[in-house]
Amino acid sequence: MLFGISGNARLFLYCLPADMRKGFDGLSGLVTNKLGQNPLSGDIFIFINRTRMLIKILVWDQTGFAIWHKRLEQGTFEMPLIEKTQNSVEISRQKLMLILEGISLKSVQSRKRFLLK
Question: Cα(23)–Cα(21) distance, rounded to whole angstroms?
């Protein structure tokens, strides 16, 4: 489990730069109005600012909202390849961990694995 969240949760990365002054209400408003998702779904919503040095992760855990926040002292968070028309992209837990750890997404090669769909 990532951040104490169940394995059923999907992860959505907001593709536009987010205002990091936003808190619970502001971020859940972005989820509803820009991503067209339900912030109470238990899915994980990821926001990165313009300089890509700050990241916030919003999740509803059945009792309330939780925000996880990280600021880099050096470097930037890498964004995956995104089409300019997309407001959000669904990413895997593995890709989120690579982004958080500063591992280049371009250099990672995944081996073939069985995926239950």
Answer: 6
